[in-house]
Amino acid sequence: MNLRVVGGMLGAGWLFLAASGGAAPIEKHAGVVTAIDARQITISEMGPWRGPETKPVNHTFRLTPATKIVRVERTPEGSQGWPWSYASRPLGLSDLLPGDYVTVTAEPDGRRGVAVEVEAVALDQSR
Predict the structure, then answer these.
(1) What is the domain count for the chain?
(2) Which domain holds residue 50?
(3) Per the domain annotation, does 62 fall within a domain?
(4) Residues 6+ apart with CB under 8 A from 70
């Protein structure tokens, strides 16, 4: 491979890393909903693991109008050509209830992160 091409690829890689260096890290938290209202969601998450004394930790995330809320479930059709894979469908905030198991994708912002997406797992097929 030409030395100029390799140098150009390395330079482009460094520019990409430098440009993404200031972006806020994305966090994922999974647990059971303990409280929810129009402004925030609180979940109880197990961890970090510290042996037999480990206890659930509560995390509260701010909800915004841009927060995407979905229900994920296995379907025969699946998604993206994979039968029986997980598919998601939009979910209203009022459909989330304490006791639901969720994964919250959040951007850190002080003590409470901002929820970018809330994925609720369909455990009860009647809902």
Answers:
(1) 1
(2) 25-121
(3) yes
(4) 88, 89, 90, 91, 117, 118, 119, 120
Q: pTM surpassing 0.70? A: yes
DSSP single-letter state for residue 116: E
Cα angle 93, 68, 100; round to 5: 50
Q: Is 90 among the domain residues? A: yes
The amino acid occupying position 60 is: T
CA distances for 62 relative to 32, 39, 105, angstroms = 16, 6, 11
Query: pLDDT digits over 43-92, tens only?
Result: 999 978 888 889 999 999 999 999 999 998 887 776 677 777 777 889 99
Q: What CATH number has the domain bearing residue 33?
A: 2.40.50.320
Q: What are phi and psi of 17, to 5 degrees?
A: -65, -40
89 domain residue, yes or no: yes
